[in-house]
Amino acid sequence: MEKDNVIKAFAQLGKLMSHIATKQKWENFDCGITENEYENLQRIINKQFVLNGWFTKENVFQSLNALGSQLTESNLNEWTNDYSFSISPKNIAIIMAGNIPLVGFHDFMSVLISGHNAICKLSSDDKSLLPALAQHLIQFSPELKQRIIFTNGKMNKMDAIIATGSDNSTRHFKDYFGHLPNIFRKNRTSIAVLTGTETRDELALLGKDIFEYFGLGCRNVSHLIVPENYNFNLFFESIVDFHPIINHHKYANNYDYNKAVYLLNKANLLDNNFLLLRESDELFSPLAMIHHHQYKNEDDINQYLQNHEEQIQVIIGKKYTPFGNAQCPFLTDYADGINTLNWLQEL
Length: 347
Fold this sequence. Notes:
By secondary structure, the chain is α/β, with parallel strands linked by helices. The chain has 2 domains: 3-187, Aldehyde Dehydrogenase, Chain A, domain 1 (3-Layer(aba) Sandwich), CATH 3.40.605; 189-317, Aldehyde Dehydrogenase, Chain A, domain 2 (3-Layer(aba) Sandwich), CATH 3.40.309. Helix content is 40%, strand content 16%. A 6-stranded mixed beta sheet has the order 8-9-10-7-6-11, sandwiched between helices. It has a 5-stranded parallel beta sheet with strand order 3-2-1-4-5, with helices on both faces.
């Protein structure tokens, strides 16, 4: 089917996602579905927290809004204009993660817009939201019904695969599917480079980069590079509005556990009662904790970034991605820097 039809369908889906994410009431068919269908989608969203305690209503709305705001016809056309896709569709398996709501949506959309068929294996942590949205996508473009499969079992008749998981699961992906054309994504995290001249507002936005989705996404900041003798007082003062996060029981359990473990090991921690700061060169930090280390000059920063290039998803800072934008990727912000559309085009 024509790419234009799929783009129009995703644009209408984006309008629906944005409409429901901004908590608007159903008023007319501008969002593309009936009032009963709209209310049913709201019920599915409300149920996400029961299925996965990390998927609060606010987090689901945030994901819907971040995605929906990108899905306009002009954005989608600009994104895909430079590609001419094969007229011979292939079956693309997509093994999705479930760390944040709809984390596999970009792969799902890329496969369909490129003219291929999507065989989706959902994470048990995020198994109902994408199928619910896909039902409405099919309403907007019925031809897509034959090109979308959701499965919990064994995947068959695959021509290529996109799989996202941990470093350990990636080893299994390679064992089972390494003979196929593939994109295998491993553990990544994000980092912020501070100069010491950040304003209170900039540091508050950095708080968004740390705490959105409870810090579970690969685009969440888990490590700070700071100048020598950096004073964290302003940082703590600037993120104080995020303190209600400690009221979430799963986050609080991680905070309490990590605090106990590291104090027992006599680690030096900075603590504001909802976030732990630990000085360490290690890039990855446990949930509810941020690692930080000092630099002397620009060369120190560049060397650290170069050494961890394969593990860093986003770099936040004055010279990098702006503060507060870690979880606001554009359509061209491909995970792990791998251009999915280009890969799909060349299959």
